[in-house]
Every structure is written in C-alpha cells, then in structure tokens.
C-alpha cells in the first residue's frame, strides 16, 4: 500500500504582529506561525483571544533574543510601524522614533546568522515608504535586506481588490535564493517601482505572478451594520446639522442628491479634515470605505452616512464594521471596546491581501517553485 506524504506547513516568525490579521491571511494560505511579537499589551490580548496557542511574546522588538526564536522558520513577516512614514504622519522616515524599529527587526535577522535566517522575508508598510525622504528610505530598506543576503521584489496591493475599502499597502518580498525574474509590466508593480528596479546599486527581482482581482467598485452598503433608527449611536439632529453645515458646496450637493432618492438608502463614509484652519467633513463619492485609520498619526476615524427618503443619518463606524472591511469578519472581538478594536484594526493589514500574496507568491517561493528555469525547461515552454 502506497503512503501519501503530506507537506509540512512552512513556519513563520511574525514581527510587529498586532492583533494577527497578517497571520490570518498566512494561515489561510498554508503557513504555520511559530512565534509572534508585539509591543502593545492591548493588541497582544486580542491576538491571544483569537488564536488558541501561546506564540505571542509581548515586548519591544529591540529586546528580542534571537537565540530564543524557534528554529527552522521559512518566513519572517514584519508589519513594522508606519507612523513616521504615513502621509498622515510626521514623515520623519525610517529614522523616526517608531519606524526605526525596522532596523531592530533586521538586527534580529542579522544575529540569527546565515544558517538560521529564514529564506524569505516580507516587510509590509504604507506606500508612503516609497516617497519618504525622496525614496531614500525605501532604498535604505532594500539595501538592508541586500546586506542580509536577500534580493527584493516590490509590490503594492490595495485591499480594495478584495473588500470595499481603499487601503493600498507596500510589500517588500526578500528571497535568499534566486528567483525567476519577469520583466513584463504587472498591475501590482506601478510605474514608480521602476526607479528602484532600475537602480544598479540594489539587488532586486520581479517574480512571475498571476494578475490579481480587479478593484471592487462598490459594496460598502452591504458590509455595514443595520442599526435601528433609535440606536443611541446615531447622532442627534443638531450634530447632523453641524456635520452638513461644515461641508463644501460640492459635498452638500452630492449629499442632497443622495438624500432625495427614495428607492433605497445610500451609504458613504466621511472624514473630518482641516482646511485653511477650519474643521470640515468630506464624504467619499463612492460606495467604498476610505482607508481605515487610527486616531494617531493625524487622522480621525470615519463616520458612516446613511442617505435616502429625504433623510440623512450619521454615526461613527463600529468595531464590527472595521473587522468586516479588513476581511476579518470571523475575528473574535467579543468583550473588546470599539475603540480598542478600531485602533488595532486601523493599524493592520487586510487579511485577503495577505492571503493572496501568500498563496500566489510566498508559498511557491519558500517551496522553491519560483527558482529560475534551466535552459531545458525554458525550451519546453
């Protein structure tokens, strides 16, 4: 009788793990998280509530002892702090107080030595890393990985390809082994990436990948909770009136058009902005959420606007909605404050974006399936 040998799940070391949304995507793709770390006790509490294991270690990445990390990991994942890189932040870059934790992460990798270091590494961050200090910070990050023996690929994935939320993120995928390079254009490598791929001082590659799903055009309204009209979370009339009064004429015209329709409710999200020193509300024109954010970094949380049948109702977005828009509807948020959930999820990466990247790139990469083809293999193709 023949015996089918099952492939073991490649192991992951998860740095800056937050509440584990990256892990959810990696798990769905077939990875196994062997160790995780985050500095926030609140995020660690949510992480441990979600996952039935004890892999989470709470503490500053600068205090991580490489000798205590599980051996044999194929992938190191890092969703490092973006506060100093975000367009909504202070833009001090990789040398900023929080984003400099990136170098503490690579310091851990360096201390693991050539034999113990994972063959694949991923850095996930805001797209603002590409423009921070005129691109110098991204070059520095690529060089840091190059010094550790990794060739680096650059990809941008917007969560909107999977959920009705506009949330572009930058992914640096580093490989210690050669990768078959595709010089063709790809929707996940926008034109600006050519500056970095074309830099002869950087070691980069462009792996052959399938095209991702197209951006979803709508779906916010189907994702939001249906709170009853007497739910206290809806704002009172005076607050709604102040909300509308703060809008520009263009915004008011859009709102009134949607308010007058009487077939169904229309839903939008809105942010509070400061324009010329005055606080105003701006509403998105489409049935897609703006990027979920934390209050830290200069951005406010989003309000939900319901319009139709001659009425306008407004409230803050709920924790349940944050989870849904991050592709994490199954996440256990019971017992956690909305503010805790919103802060944690607004600081995270969307689950389906990670799952797509892992299934189509990371799993084949760690299994050696993206290695350069031999001359004979190329001839067969």
List the helices and strands and how they pair.
Blueprint: E1 11-15, H1 21-29, E2 32-38, H2 41-50, E3 56-58, E4 75-78, H3 101-116, E5 120-126, H4 136-147, E6 151-158, E7 168-175, H5 194-197, H6 220-223, H7 237-245, H8 249-260, E8 266-275, E9 278-283, E10 303-308, E11 311-316, H9 319-325, H10 338-345, H11 351-366, H12 375-380
Parallel strand pairs: 1-2, 1-4, 2-3, 4-5
Antiparallel strand pairs: 5-7, 6-7, 8-9, 8-10, 10-11
Helix pairs in contact: 1-11, 9-10
Strand order of the largest sheet: 3-2-1-4-5-7-6
Top CATH class of the largest domain: Alpha Beta
Q: Biggest sheet, open or closed, and with what strands and sense?
A: 7 strands, mixed
Q: Give the C-alpha Rg.
A: 22 Å
Give the total of beta strands.
11
CATH architecture of the largest domain: 3-Layer(aba) Sandwich
**Backbone structural class:** alpha/beta
Alpha-carbon distance between the two ends: 35 Å
Enzyme class: transferase
Family: Belongs to the class I-like SAM-binding methyltransferase superfamily. C5-methyltransferase family.
Protein name: DNA (cytosine-5-)-methyltransferase
Active site: 82
């Amino acid at each position: 009788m023949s015996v089918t040998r099952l492939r073991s799940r490649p192991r992951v070391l998860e740095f800056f793990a937050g509440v584990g949304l990256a892990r959810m995507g990696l798990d769905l793709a077939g990875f196994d998280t062997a160790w995780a770390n985050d500095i926030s006790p609140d995020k660690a509490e949510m992480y441990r509530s979600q996952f039935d294991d004890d892999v989470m270690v709470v503490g500053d990445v600068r205090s991580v002892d490489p000798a205590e990390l599980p051996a044999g990991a194929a992938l190191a994942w890092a969703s490092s702090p973006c506060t100093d890189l975000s367009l909504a932040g202070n833009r001090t870059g990789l040398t900023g107080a929080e984003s400099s934790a990136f170098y503490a992460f690579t310091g851990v990798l360096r201390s693991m030595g050539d034999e113990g270091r994972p063959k694949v590494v991923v850095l996930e961050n805001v797209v603002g890393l590409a423009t921070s200090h005129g691109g110098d910070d991204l070059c520095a990050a690529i060089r840091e990985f190059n010094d550790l023996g990794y060739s680096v690929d650059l990809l941008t994935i917007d969560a909107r390809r999977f959920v009705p939320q506009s949330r572009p993120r930058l992914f640096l995928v580093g490989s210690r082994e050669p990768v078959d390079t595709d010089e063709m254009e790809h929707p996940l490598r926008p034109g600006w990436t050519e500056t970095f791929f074309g830099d002869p001082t950087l070691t980069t590659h462009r792996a052959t990948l399938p095209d991702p799903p197209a951006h979803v055009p709508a779906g916010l309204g189907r994702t939001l909770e249906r709170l009853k009209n007497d739910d206290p979370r809806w704002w009172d009339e005076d607050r709604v009136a102040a909300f509308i009064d703060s809008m520009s004429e263009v915004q008011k015209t859009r709102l009134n058009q949607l308010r007058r329709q009487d077939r169904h409710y229309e839903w939008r999200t809105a942010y509070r902005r400061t324009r010329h020193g005055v606080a105003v509300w701006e509403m998105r024109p489409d049935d897609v959420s703006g990027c979920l954010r934390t209050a830290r970094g200069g951005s406010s949380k989003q309000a939900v606007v319901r319009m139709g049948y001659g009425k306008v109702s407004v409230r803050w977005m709920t924790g349940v909605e944050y989870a849904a828009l991050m592709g994490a509807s199954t996440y256990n948020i019971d017992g956690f404050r909305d503010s805790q959930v919103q802060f944690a999820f607004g600081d995270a990466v969307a689950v389906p974006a990670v799952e797509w990247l892992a299934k189509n790139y990371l799993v084949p990469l760690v299994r050696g399936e993206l290695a350069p083809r031999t001359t004979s293999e190329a001839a067969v193709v």
